[in-house]
Write a structure and sequence with these properties.
Largest interface: A-B, 19 and 17 residues
Largest sheet of chain B: 6 strands, mixed
Strand content of chain A: over 45%
Structural class of chain B: mainly beta
Oligomer: heterodimer
Largest sheet of chain A: 7 strands, mixed
Structural class of chain A: mainly beta
Order of helices and strands of chain A: EEEEEEEEEEE
Helix content of chain B: under 10%
Number of strands of chain A: 11
Distance between the termini of chain B: 41 Å
Helix content of chain A: under 10%
Number of helices of chain A: 0
Shape of chain A: globular
Distance between the termini of chain A: 37 Å
Chain lengths: ~120, ~120
């Protein structure tokens, strides 16, 4: 089946540094990538939607200058958390949207646990 | 606004028994999908079952089945013959069909514990 590879799975960084998270669709082309954030014991909240070759659309309350999303190709989308602070510590998950036959499907990455010290 | 509500934060069931997780939703769209996802401690999101809103027949996947009541906007998940491996967070989710978005809207989740 379709696989979305998300790296790194876990990252610890110092406050003020930037962290890049990658999501790759390994055997299909992802026209759209969704980025979610999940705080402990909470649900997944959509942060932004990125379409290949165009600017990402951010949800209300999500700072686009802080969470930089690049979707330069149909197989790679990146989320960069710039100048990370402890409140950015969270679990980040990507989800790729693709057509499988005549059906639209969503495939999730395995997530990245970000801890900012 | 589209919302998904799961009113049971936690549930437990004995192994081999049956349990039903509740979900209600609200949307103004006529075409949409509903999902149940499982998130085990590994935190990988695993699709359990999917229902197209235009289909009247309830979806089933082995031990998992749904009771989809479109008029009531209700979408419950029934797990039969519960197994220890079913222990996880379960999220109900809504997705509009097609369009430029297509993102999932999740409920708050139900933590299911299967006891031996």
């Amino acid at each position: 089946g379709a696989v979305v590879s998300q790296h790194p799975s876990r990252v610890i960084c110092k406050s003020g540094t930037s962290v890049k998270i990658e999501c790759r669709s390994l055997d299909f082309q992802a026209t759209t990538m969704f980025w979610y954030r999940q705080f402990p014991k909470q649900s997944l909240m959509l942060m932004a939607t990125s379409n290949e070759g165009s600017k990402a659309t951010y949800e209300q309350g999500v700072e686009k200058d802080k969470f930089l999303i690049n979707h330069a190709s149909l197989t790679l989308s990146t989320l960069t958390v710039t100048s990370a602070h402890p409140e950015d510590s969270s679990f980040y998950i990507c989800s790729a949207r693709a057509w499988v036959g005549f059906n639209e499907k969503l495939f999730f990455g395995s997530g990245t646990q970000l801890s900012v010290l | 606004a589209q919302t998904v509500t799961q009113s049971q934060p936690e549930m437990s069931v004995q192994e081999a028994e049956t349990v039903t997780l509740s979900c209600t939703y609200d949307t103004s769209e006529s075409n949409y999908y509903l999902f149940w996802y499982k998130q085990p401690p590994s935190r990988q999101m695993i699709l359990v079952i999917r229902q197209e809103a235009y289909k009247q027949q309830n979806a089933t996947e082995n031990r998992f089945s749904v009771n989809f009541q479109k008029a009531a906007k209700s979408f419950s998940l029934k797990i039969s013959d519960s197994q220890l491996g079913d222990t996880a967070m379960y999220f109900c989710a809504l997705q509009n069909y097609g369009g430029s978005q297509g993102n999932l809207i999740f409920g708050k989740g139900t933590k299911l514990s299967v006891k031996p």
